Amino acid sequence: MGQPKCYSIMPHTNLSRTENERVGRLLKFLDCSPDAFHVVHTVAETLQKSGFQQLYEDDDWIRGCNLRPGGKYFFKRHDSSLIAFQVGRKFQNGNGFKILAAHTDSPHLKIRPISKRAVNHGVIQLNVECYGGGLWHTWFDRDLSISGRVIVRSPNGDQLFRRLLNINRPVVRIPTLCIHLRTSEERDNFNFNKEEHLQPIICDQVHAALLKNHNFQDPWLSSQEPMLLTLISEYLQCNVQDIADFQLSLYDNQNASRVGMMSEFVCGSRLDNLASCFAIMEAMIDHGSNLEDDESISVMALFDHEEVGSESIVGAGSTLIADTLQRLSVTLMGGETIFRESELFHQSKRRYDLYCDHSQTSIIYLGLSFYRLIWLTRSIQTIQLSMNVLIPQL
Questions:
Q1: Cis peptide before 253 (omega within 30 of 0)
Q2: Residue 390's pLDDT band (boundaries 50, 70, 90)?
Q3: Residue 327, CA distances (Å) to 110, 295, 320, 323, 386 in order
Q4: Cross-strand pairs, 262
Q5: Are strands 337-343 and 97-103 parallel, antiparallel or unpaired?
Q6: Of 13, 59, 144, 366, which one has the greatest count of Cβ atoms within 10 A?
Q7: Could you read off the pLDDT of 35-92 as tens digits, one per residue?
Q8: Is the CB of residue 79 less than 8 Å from the CB of residue 41?
């Protein structure tokens, strides 16, 4: 008998090479952005490579930054929100702004300011809390990692530095109770206590005892889990005593991917709202190469804390965008401004028909849903509408 024939079925798609490359950049963007700090860092790096100049809020933009038509700029606030803008070469005083906005945060489990918990049945756990309105049952039995921002002291203690941390490997886990200890009703309902069952395991007590025992004099350090501090110091290559503070979160360590017979779907964590952040960033960069006939200022606004109300100093409810527009020009009050906020929407799902109003269904077709269109003129008028904007590149 002859050797059996082997067939290779390769993923194929209707997207062009340019569009496939854009999807590849989206996947990389998702993987490099496990939290709001890394989102802003990734966007800032990409903008700088595309010719954008970094500004700072405490700079004198009038005398020291030389803002001019054809210029491209961005600045960050608290490392978790970002504003970028580019001035059309035909811009004149009295012309308007074009603004696209999205948010950098997503629901996640956040490590609490006091991360230490009592040893429970021989394992070391971290003290976490729910940020935003997440589907928390999906966090069980996943490979979870830790990322965020850490404040580190200089060796002599006279300076503080902000350091990004991404422990890009599975390091903590939230296990479920085995089926043998659950009734059939409990298995069907899958009820859990957020304050008790969502606390992840980072280490067992035996291995923790084998490591160096830290006796901290600093009150803040003594309130933190020593295994977490040790992990941070190893990745940042600093002394544990030099760690002054942190804002850390858990995230799913599985990379984003393309799935489907023709690789037509993108699956990954934090698509809400990083897909919008990516699309707006790409639009800004693409438009930045053709400012010759632009008569307005194009603005990208990426806000933090949308998942918890947007009312912080880095949220959309702050004065961040108003301060930016006012600083750019105090003479543009009569100019027309177009504002579009980009947010993901949910397609009607056949498997969950009971949760949908069939007279108001929505179908995804290679696009993002811009659900709010606001025209800002002398008298502000808000128009609520739903529209589907086709973006074939995505």
A1: no
A2: very low
A3: 34, 18, 11, 6, 32
A4: none
A5: parallel
A6: 144
A7: 999 999 999 999 999 999 999 998 888 776 778 889 999 999 999 999 999 999 998 8
A8: yes
* Nearest to 170, CA basis, from 193, 207, 143, 152: 143
Q: Which CATH number fits domain 108-252: 3.90.1150.10, 2.60.40.420, 2.30.250.10, 3.30.70.330?
A: 2.30.250.10
The chain-wide mean pLDDT, for the chain, equals 82
What is 261-286 written as a DSSP string? TTS-EEE-TTHHHHHHHHHHHHHHHH
The C-alpha angle with vertex 259 and arms to 257 and 264, in degrees rounded to 5, equals 110
| CA–CA distance, 243 with 115 (Å, rounded to integer) | 14
Pull the structure tokens for residue 256. 């984003």
| Cα–Cα dist 249/236, whole Å | 16
The listed CATH number (3.40.630.10, 3.40.50.920, 3.90.1300.10, 1.20.1050.10) that belongs to domain 17-106+270-390: 3.40.630.10
Q: Tell the residue number behind the tokens 């990208």, with chain if given.
A: 300
Give the span between the Cα atoms of 295 and 70, in whole angstroms: 10
Q: Which residues lie across from 247 on neighbouring strands?
A: 149
Closest CA to 276 of 205, 150, 367: 367
Sheet of 381-390, strand order: 53-54, 72-77, 81-87, 297-303, 97-103, 337-343, 367-376, 381-390
SS3 of 206, please? helix
* Whether the Cβ atoms of residue 355 and residue 347 lie closer than 8 Å to each other: no
Measure the CA–CA gap between 4 and 67, rounded to whole angstroms: 68
Report the pLDDT value the prediction gives residue 93, as an integer from 0 to 100: 79
Percent of the chain with pLDDT over 70: 79
**Is residue 170 helix, strand or coil?**
strand
User: 337 φ, ψ to 5°?
Assistant: -120, 130
Please state the domain extents for the chain: 17-106+270-390, 108-252
Spatial separation of the C-alpha atoms in residues 226 and 222, rounded to whole Å? 8
